[in-house]
Amino acid sequence: MDIDEGPFASFEPDGPRNDDGAEGKRRLRDIQLRFVVPNIITVLAICAGMTGVRLAFEDRFDTAVAMVLLAAFLDGLDGRVARLVKGSSKFGAEMDSLADIVNFGVAPALVLYAFVLNAAGSLGWIAALLYAIACGLRLARFNVMMENRDRPQWQAAFFTGVPAPAGALLVLLPVYLGFLGIKPDLHYASVVSVYTLVIAFLMVSSLPVWSGKTLGAKIPRAVVIPVILGVVLYVALLATYTWQTMTFTAVAYIALLPISLRMWRKRAAQEMKKKQTAA
User: Fold this and answer.
1) 118: which DSSP letter?
2) Going from the N-terminus, what domains does the chain have, and what CATH number goes with each?
3) What phi and psi, each to the nearest 5 degrees, are found at residue 189?
4) How many C-beta atoms surround the C-beta of residue 20 within 10 A?
5) Paired sense of beta strands 208-210 and 158-160, if any
6) Which 3-state string (H, E, C) describes 26-71?
7) pLDDT digits (tens, 9 = 90+) for 34-47
8) Reduced to 3 states, what is the DSSP secondary structure of residue 158?
9) 228 to 1, 31, 222, 224, 232: CA distances (angstroms)
10) CA–CA gap between residue 225 and residue 230 (Å, rounded)
11) According to its UniProt record, where is this protein located (predicted)?
12) 74-106: per-residue pLDDT in tens?
């Protein structure tokens, strides 16, 4: 260990350490803050997810779900902040992948298990376990597909399978319903176990899910005010009727999955027609 580094290994966001010359050491010793901020957000997301698990086992489920959703929000924020401040790094990408497994896989599974799945005994634990594993597989596949340069560009507008953040939102639907008055008894726990397995299957499936990336960074001038009002309305409903709004959001997402499949098939047919015309 280099004595000048202190008790901790150097933070090297751009890859392996380069000890060739004093200038290289100086460059690695002084890391710009823009590389650190996204990683701080990622760590805070992990803290929120793990705190949600603790609160769930303390029977403070409303706060537990809020912490898991906060973890999902922070986890989605770190990448955008990194791109905004040009602070993306290989270290940050690896941290983000690990955080995704905790925030979208382990934390929601344990919160759901503590709330209702434990009433189903071994079946409930198996459902929670398979969901967490499916989330890990989903994230690993996503990372591999990101490195695939041969994938047609139009397919980048779709996820393959339900993305992990959406999976966390959907798998917690039984908790939202529980807050609305449904009692987590044995029958309900059995149904939720099956539902959890369905969400796990959707995450690792090849179902095309529209990602929204094709919307771009600009919107028509005429829809600016309606978009602002829509966002304000949703936030107001979320703050006032939290669990009703979360239930509606999850159900609406599930209802839109067939539309995503139809959009994929339509686009695939168009691309096939272009190839045939070109040939």
Assistant:
1) G
2) 32-211 (1.20.120.1760)
3) -65, -35
4) 8
5) antiparallel
6) HHHHCCCHHHHHHHHHHHHHHHHHHHHHHHHHCCCHHHHHHHHHHH
7) 778 888 888 898 99
8) strand
9) 54, 38, 12, 6, 6
10) 8
11) Endomembrane system
12) 887 877 777 777 767 777 777 888 888 998 999
CB atoms within 10 A of CB 74: 22
**Whole-model pTM?**
0.83
Distance CA 70, CA 227 (A): 23
Q: How far apart are CA 200 and CA 30, in angstroms?
A: 43
- Amino acid found at 230: G
State which amino acid sits at residue 231.
V
The end-to-end CA distance of the chain, in Å, is 62
The SS3 call for residue 161 is coil
Its sign, for the CA torsion 180, 181, 186, 191, is: negative
Phi, psi of 209 (to 5 degrees): -125, 125
The DSSP code sequence of 168-184 is: HHHHTHHHHHHHTT---
CA–CA distance, 77 with 42 (Å, rounded to integer): 8
| C-alpha triplet 94, 205, 122: angle, nearest 5° | 85
Distance CA 47, CA 44 (A): 5
Q: Name residue 159's beta-bridge partners.
A: 209
For 210, the enclosing helix (H) or strand (E) is: strand 208-210
Note whether 111 and 68 are within 8 A (CB).
yes
Residues in the chain: 279
